[in-house]
Amino acid sequence: MLKLLHILWNSFKMSLGELKNNKLRSALSLTGVAFGIFCIISVLATISSLQTKIQTDINALGTNTIYVDKWEYTNDDNSPWWTFVNRPTPKYEDVKYIKERSALAQNVAFFTQINTDLEYRNLELQNVGVFGISDEFNQVQTLDIVAGRYFTQTEFLYGNATIVIGYENAVQLFGSPEKAIGKFVSFNKHRVNIIGVIGKQGSMVGGFDYDDCIMLTYNYYASVYNIMDDDMHPFVMVKAKPNVPSQALVDDLEGVMRQVRRLSPQQQDNFALNDVNLLGTSSINSFFGTVNVGGWAIAGLSLVVGAFGVANIMFVTVRERTSQIGLKKAIGAKSRTILLEFLLESAFLCIIGGFIGLLMVWILALILNTVLPFAIIISLKIILLAFSICVILGILSGIIPASIAARMNPVVAIRSK
Fold first, then answer.
1. Is residue 357 a contact partner of residue 396, using CB atoms and an 8 Å limit?
2. CB of 328 within 8 A of CB of 318?
3. Nearest to 67, CA basis, from 279, 245, 221
4. Residue 293: which domain range?
5. 303 with 378, same domain?
6. For 6-10, 266-270, 339-343, which range has the lowest pLDDT when averaged over its residues?
7. 404: number of CA atoms within 13 Å, CB side?
8. Is 131 within 8 Å of 220 (Cβ atoms)?
9. pLDDT at residue 3 above 60?
10. If you write DSSP's letter for every residue of 320-368 in order, what string do you get?
11. Do 273 and 287 fall into the same domain?
12. Chain segment 105-138, per-residue pLDDT in tens
C-alpha cells in the first residue's frame, strides 16, 4: 500500500512538473480535454436540471390525475378539430356524479378560467387569469400559500367575495405578499377581499399560471360570469386513489362519463380523458435525446483531440526521461512499476484538464442561474462520470508511451543521455 501511494505521489508531482516546465505545450494539449469535459458536464447538468424542472411542473398539474375535457390534449390519432368542437362542455354537476360513481377517484375538482383586468386604487393589471375552482382543487393541485390562508368550506358553500391572489400580482400591486392580505381589489365592477397569496412558482410547460392569477370559489365565479361560455374552457380534474394506476382510472372514468352523458353502446365517446403525466413525454424525451447526442458528439471530438495531445506529451516525456528510466530499472525498478508511473501521470494530466472543464461549467452555471427560469445543478453523479472519463482517457492516451518506457533496456536507456 505504501509503495502504491509513493508511486501515486510521484506521478502527481511529475504531472505538475510537466505542466510547469512545458506550459504552452501542456496548456494546448489539456485544452481539448478541458473543453470535452466542459461539453459533457454542461450538457448533462443542463438537461438533468431541465428535466427535473419540467417534471416538477408536470407534477404540479396533478400527479396521477386525469383531466375530463371536450378536447384531447395530445390528439394522437390526428382527429380533425370539428370532431371535438361540438362535444358538450364539462359541467360543475359532473363533479358530483364522478364522486358518486367512480370507485377509483380520490379527489374531484372543477376548474374554469377567463382573463380580465384587476384594479387596486389607481393601479391596474391587465389580462389577469381568473380561476373558478371547486372545494377539492387544492387536494388535486399543489398550492403553496405564502401569506394568509386558503378558502374555507363555508366560503366555497356560500360563494363569499374573497380571493386568493398570485405572487406576481401581489408584488406588483402591494410590494409584498404580506401587504396584500386584507386588501380589496376590483374586477368587472366586483370588489373582493384578498385572503391569501400563492407562492411564486413559474412554469415551463404551460398549465396553471399561478403567479399571475386570482382564484375565486366556483359559486362566486358563477355569480359573476356565465359559466357555460365555452371560451372559459371548463374541465374536471380527477385524482386517483393511492396505488391506483392512471390507466385504471381512465378505464373507470370512461364508464362513469358514458353513464353521465347517457351514451348507448354504439355511440362514440363525446369526452376526452387526458393523462397530464403523459403530456409531451415523447417529444420532450426526443428533444433531450437529440441534445444529448449533439453534446456527446462535440465532447467526443474534443476528447479525441485532447487524447492525442496528452499522448504527445507522454511520448516527449518518455524521451526526456529515458536515462532516468534506465537508472530506475538498473537499481531494481520493475517494468510494471515504470508502466504504472507513466499511466498514472497521463491520467493525472487528464484529471487536471477535467478539473479545468468542471471549473468552467461551474462559472457558466453561476451566470446562467441568474437568467434561466430553473437552476442548473451539477450533481455528484455527473462529476464522477466526467472524472471517470478523464481517467480512462488518460490511460488510453498513455498506454503506448508507458509500454515503450516499461520495455526499455536499462543499459541502452542509461547510455542515451
1. no
2. no
3. 279
4. 2-57+283-415
5. yes
6. 6-10
7. 15
8. no
9. no
10. HTHHHHHHHHHTT--HHHHHHHHHHHHHHHHHHHHHHHHHHHHHHHHHH
11. no
12. 999 999 999 999 999 989 999 999 999 999 999 9
User: How many other CB atoms are found less than 10 A from the CB of residue 172?
Assistant: 14
What CA–CA distance (Å, rounded) separates 18 from 404? 19
Residues 157-175: what's their mean pLDDT? 94
One domain, residues 268 and 338: no
- End of a domain among 225, 260, 277? 277
Supply the mean pLDDT for the chain: 81
The alpha carbon of residue 417 and the mean position of all alpha carbons in its chain are separated, in whole angstroms, by: 59
As a whole number of angstroms, the distance between CA 179 and CA 71 comes to 40
Whether the model clears a pTM of 0.70, i.e. scores above it, the answer is no
Mention every residue, 6+ apart, whose C-beta is less than 8 A from residue 293.
none
Check whether residue 333 and residue 267 sit in a common domain. Answer: no
Q: In terms of domains, do 111 and 254 share one?
A: yes
Give Cβ neighbours of residue 413 (< 8 Å, ≥ 6 apart).
322, 323, 325, 326, 329
Same domain, 34 and 81: no
Q: Which of 133-142, 222-231, 303-312, 338-347 is most confident?
A: 133-142
Domain match, 45 and 125 both: no
Query: According to the model, what pLDDT value does residue 79 have?
Result: 67
Answer with the one of 253, 277, 301 that is the final residue of a domain: 277
Q: How far is CA 364 from CA 30, 52, 113, 369, 386, in A?
A: 19, 19, 40, 9, 17
DSSP state of 104: S
Q: What is the DSSP string of 169-237?
A: HHHHHHSSHHHHTT-EEEETTEEEEEEEEEPP---SS-S--GGGEEEEEHHHHHHHS-TT-GGG--EEE
Question: How many domains, the chain?
Answer: 2
Are residues 313 and 165 both part of a single domain?
no
